[in-house]
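Comment thread on ticket #2218

A.B. wrote:
> Attaching the input chain for the structure job we discussed in standup.
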Amino acid sequence: MTELQQLIITYDWHRAAQQPCALATVVEVVGSAYRRPGARMLVTGEGELTGAISGGCLEGDARQRARRAIFRGEPALVTYDTRDEDDPRHGLGPGCQGVVRILLEPLDFSDLNNPLELLRGFARHPAPAVLATVFETDATGLRAALGQRLLLSAAGAVRGTPLLAGALAEAARTTLALGRSQVLDIDTDAGPVRALLEVLTPPLRLVVYGAGNDAQPLVRLAASLGWHITVVDGRPNLATAARFPGAAAVRLVPVAELPTQAPDLLAYHVLLSHNYAYDLAALHALLPTSVPYIGLLGPRLKAARLLDELELSEAAVDELMQGPLHSPIGLDLGSETPAEIALAIVAEIQARRNGRQGRPLRERAGTVHLSTEISADAGPR
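C.D. wrote:
> Ran it. Output below, let me know if you need it in another format.
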């Protein structure tokens, strides 16, 4: 289950019980912090917490402030400077060395455009989207803009509060084309506002070919990250939902039918069948496509034999090995057991998705995270 799914489930429980709650959202980070803009935490009037906005250092103070926002019935923006060793609110000292700004908002259960209802709309139609959140304005007439939101889907549909909708929608379209979150100063007709333009991405899709025992820890680990998993196998005794409770689907597909199946082009594909003919059929279906990742379990000699049997040119093989085909599969973690191998596979897929090499962070030059510290005039031209 993803963090967002857990937040929505908890929100629905409190809504049904009519227990007031507030949402704390990280809207801006300058410098280093444990969580990035878009991290969320649900706080009830009794102080119960779901989700996280830091590594634990900010939650206590944010909880009290969120309860105060519930009592007052109005949003608030709070700034934590974790560079300040003497700040008693978090006791972090020089740990994170960053400035974190958090928007605290009491949730109106009757408002279909409250932040969690907008996020529910994204979750129901998982495709890339942008959520624009206004968190600061200096204009007296725009005080009501604090917490105003707009959700822009990949299809161009816009949903949210009407105030500043035009300016927010234009900024959201720019952000969706950019493909990464950013903080913008938006010049509107009513005055300037500062907003988080958050790119929302659907859960990673994973297709696992092979329903053997070593596929089970892989599916469990991937499911814990909220990935959408499909398990495919031709053996009826293994391809069962009971063996893979974390999978969204378990499909029984005989080897003869694999080449006729239309692969999920957005998914990452892992071949764990331990069956030469099954792997060959899966590769026959996958290699001509544009899937982002094909991981093949087994030694290099097996991969070479499979590719040779598919009559691929040396240039084509080189291109595949530099691109989507990963064989042997996984990062070099010294893995031996099925659980350790699952960790190596999941780590490689995570790195591939994020455009990283899977090297130790201490070897990375520059910052750990891509910055959202962008200021620009995104007003109408």
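A.B. wrote:
> Thanks. Noting for the ticket: Residues 374-381 have pLDDT under 50 and may be disordered.
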